[in-house]
């Protein structure tokens, strides 16, 4: 960890989008874990929960759409500048923490309810939290395929990261733009890379996240707990119809048609059990659709949160 260098990289990203967050460190009551929350604006609170390996600043391209709201960009435990969970003996400890995550954040920041914007592993956390504590949720936007969705596919890099040896070898190699772009292509962003839609400042920040924080190691170890190279995702982690059906919050899925974790068939299988859901498929977008079309996705997200 080199916090100073990471903060410099993060500052360049925020300068590029014309926003300057404040930040607060809060403690998650159920685990005792200290996490960083970057705070932008004022008004009704919207909690942004990122996937992995990533951190809260990944939402920088769309926070400008949320004037009049208080955007809360959390670094999940073990990512960015947040401490890791101290008790992850197996992946089911992570499931237990996920059930309480949104409630813990709301309690720590003094909010009764939060709107949610979530992606990938953050989407999984949000769904489990919503099923377990529906009274803490306002409206929710899910960006593409949540982790552990029924029928979810595994891109090649995820299968490779399930190997301890692979994670340790790559952990001592310097991050590269070529590898980063290859992973982005695997998850459905090839068209945006070829069209130059993803700014260099964002890619530079992401490479420095890998260089100067423990994000890759911590999230890589979590992937290693959840995924087997031979059998794929631990089936006990898959989001069940009962869990999906217990999500009462009005929910919008903005699902990239090119998402490497699953297209329309996985989207429909995921959303069918949910009682209050809208599914919109986004052409030419991948697993992180706000990177492909930040203005459009920001506007659609804002409109849904507005109700």
Structure description:
- The chain is of the alpha/beta class.
- It has one domain: Rossmann fold.
- It contains 13 helices and 10 strands.
- It has an 8-stranded mixed beta sheet, with helices on both faces. Strands 7-8 form a two-stranded antiparallel ribbon.
- Strand 9 (about 250-255), helix 11 (about 265-270) and strand 10 (about 275-280) form a beta-alpha-beta unit.
- The model has no long low-confidence stretch (mean pLDDT about 95).
Could you give the count of β-strands?
A: 10
Query: How is the CATH topology named?
Result: Rossmann fold
| Spatial extent as radius of gyration | 18 Å
Structural class, judged by helices and strands? alpha/beta
How many independent structural domains? 1
- The CATH superfamily name is Alpha/Beta hydrolase fold, catalytic domain
Strand order of the largest sheet: 1-2-4-3-5-6-9-10
Low-confidence stretches: none
CATH-derived architecture: 3-Layer(aba) Sandwich
Q: Note the total helix count.
A: 13
pLDDT averaged residue by residue:
95
Distance between the termini: 41 Å
């Amino acid at each position: 960890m080199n916090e100073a260098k990471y903060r410099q990289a993060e500052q360049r990203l925020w300068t590029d989008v014309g926003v300057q967050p404040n930040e607060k460190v809060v403690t998650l009551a159920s685990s005792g874990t200290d996490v960083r929350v970057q705070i932008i604006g004022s008004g009704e609170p919207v909690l942004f929960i990122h996937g992995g390996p990533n951190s809260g600043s990944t939402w920088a391209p769309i926070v400008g759409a949320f004037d009049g709201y208080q955007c809360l960009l959390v670094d999940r435990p073990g990512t960015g500048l947040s401490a890791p969970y101290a008790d992850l003996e197996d992946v089911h400890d992570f499931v237990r923490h996920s059930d309480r995550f949104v409630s813990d954040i709301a309690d720590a920041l003094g909010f009764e309810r939060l709107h949610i914007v979530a992606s990938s592993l953050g989407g999984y956390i949000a769904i489990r939290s919503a099923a377990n504590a529906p009274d803490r949720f306002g409206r929710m936007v899910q960006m593409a395929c949540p982790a552990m969705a029924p029928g979810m596919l595994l891109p090649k890099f995820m299968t490779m990261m399930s190997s301890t040896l692979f994670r340790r070898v790559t952990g001592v190699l310097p991050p590269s733009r070529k590898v980063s772009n290859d992973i982005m292509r695997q998850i459905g962003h090839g068209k945006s890379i070829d069209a130059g839609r993803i700014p260099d400042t964002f890619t530079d920040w992401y490479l420095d996240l890998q260089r100067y924080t423990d994000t890759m190691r911590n999230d890589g170890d979590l992937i290693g707990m959840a995924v087997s190279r031979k059998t794929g995702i631990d089936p006990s982690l898959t989001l069940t119809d009962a869990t999906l059906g217990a999500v009462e919050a009005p929910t919008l899925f903005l699902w990239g048609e090119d998402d490497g974790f699953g297209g329309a068939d996985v989207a429909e299988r995921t959303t069918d059990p949910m009682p209050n859901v809208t599914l919109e498929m986004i052409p030419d977008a991948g697993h992180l659709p706000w990177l492909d079309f930040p203005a459009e996705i920001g506007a659609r997200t804002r409109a849904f949160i507005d109700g």
